[in-house]
Design goal:
This protein is α/β, with parallel strands linked by helices and 348 residues long. The chain has helices at 4-11, 18-27, 31-34, 39-46, 58-75, 89-92, 125-140, 153-167, 193-201, 219-230, 245-255, 269-287, 293-297, 300-305, 314-322; strands at 78-81, 100-105, 114-118, 144-147, 176-179, 205-208, 234-237, 259-263, 310-311, 328-331, 336-339, 344-347.
């Protein structure tokens, strides 16, 4: 039986990998024992030098872990360990999966078939409709919708899952998983607070790899994206201008060997208008050495040119999942999805 305080103490050490935390967990039975180790001792235990991290204080780490555990108990926040049965098996396949997942809501959502649905915060009206309707249809068909609870496409995806439950209460719960970039006791952005309340009240799930009180850092957003991609066998991008965080999630999906699909809402006049604005902003930031050229060139078109499929809606998504690899192609210039074997053309 693991001591909760020990795993909380290990979870706080962001300079350790999940495998290194598991290694240390086997060697110590209590947090008190572990707190006697200096940074040099930890380096010896895991075989890696951490001498550049001079700010580690084992007693402070123990004290903070005690506060986090106390807050979890007080706020009724639960957690699941990487080796627990409730931990999602697909996420465990990551090179460095979260050692702990803190959660609020219905943990069983992690064991249901899932689809990750992501997109831009700068969602167009058509993009919002496409994201909501795709997610609603997928949820009504028995899928849990996984997204990052950001404004724009993420919120629309979770809203689609909520709409599915409203339309069909026999589902029993809102089939969605919200992956937070912040600590589990917070909701960001605050504009989604009412949506969060409705999801939690009706069986949705919120997860985070950050315990209560952990300050939000910019790198958390990108790190969160690997969890979104890792939780499901397929990621659907509904709209994403150049440099969008959703395309980072797409990269993660491909790196993990998962399916990656783009919705036709990524193309067309509305999407192109947003892309032009975003590209102009990125060009200005590039001139100031604030972003790299690769960020500007990171576009939906590059994925599609490399063979990523484009779907029209959820029904078309289901058709795609039954097709053989390479069976369809897409022309972003002509706006046409081509099913090569059936010669079935769909206007976008």
């Amino acid at each position: 039986m693991r001591e909760s305080l020990l795993v909380f103490s290990l979870a706080r050490l962001t300079f350790l990998t999940c495998a290194e935390k598991l290694c240390l967990e086997k060697q110590f039975s209590t947090a008190e024992e572990f707190s006697r180790l200096s940074l040099a001792d930890i380096s010896l235990q895991v075989g890696r030098d951490f001498s550049i991290r001079t700010d580690y204080d084992p007693q402070k780490n123990l004290s903070e872990a005690q506060k986090e555990l106390m807050l979890c108990n007080r706020l009724k926040i639960s957690f699941v360990h990487v080796n627990d049965n409730a931990y999602p098996s697909l996420l465990r396949e990551l090179t460095n999966p979260p050692y702990l997942l803190y959660y609020r809501g219905r943990i069983e959502n992690l064991q249901c078939p899932g689809i990750s649905v992501v997109g831009t915060r700068k969602l167009t009206p058509y993009g919002r409709i496409a994201t909501t309707e795709f997610s609603k249809s997928a949820a009504l068909d028995g899928n849990v919708i996984v997204s990052g609870f950001a404004a724009g496409a993420d919120a629309a995806a979770h809203k689609g899952a909520l709409d599915a439950w409203i339309q069909n209460p026999e589902l029993g719960f809102v089939p969605t998983v919200c992956v937070l970039p912040c600590s589990i006791d917070e909701i960001t952005p605050r504009s989604n607070l009412k949506l969060a309340e409705r999801l939690l009240e009706n069986g949705g799930l919120f997860i985070s790899e950050y315990a209560p009180m952990v300050p939000l850092a910019n790198w958390h957003f990108v790190h969160r994206n690997r969890i979104i991609a890792g939780l499901t066998p397929v990621t659907v991008v509904t709209q994403a201008p150049p440099g969008s965080g959703a395309l980072i999630t797409a990269d993660y999906a491909l790196q993990m060997g998962r399916d990656l699909v783009f919705h036709k809402a990524c193309f067309g006049e509305q999407a192109e208008s947003v892309s032009r604005i975003v590209k102009h902003e990125l060009d200005i930031r590039f001139a100031k050495n604030q972003v790299s050229r690769s960020k500007i060139e990171h576009t939906v078109e590059t994925f599609v040119d490399d063979g990523a499929p484009v779907i029209e809606d959820y029904k078309d998504f289901c058709r795609f999942m039954k097709e053989r690899p390479g069976e369809r192609s897409f022309s972003s210039e002509k706006g046409i999805i081509q099913l090569s074997l059936f010669e079935d053309f769909i206007e976008v």
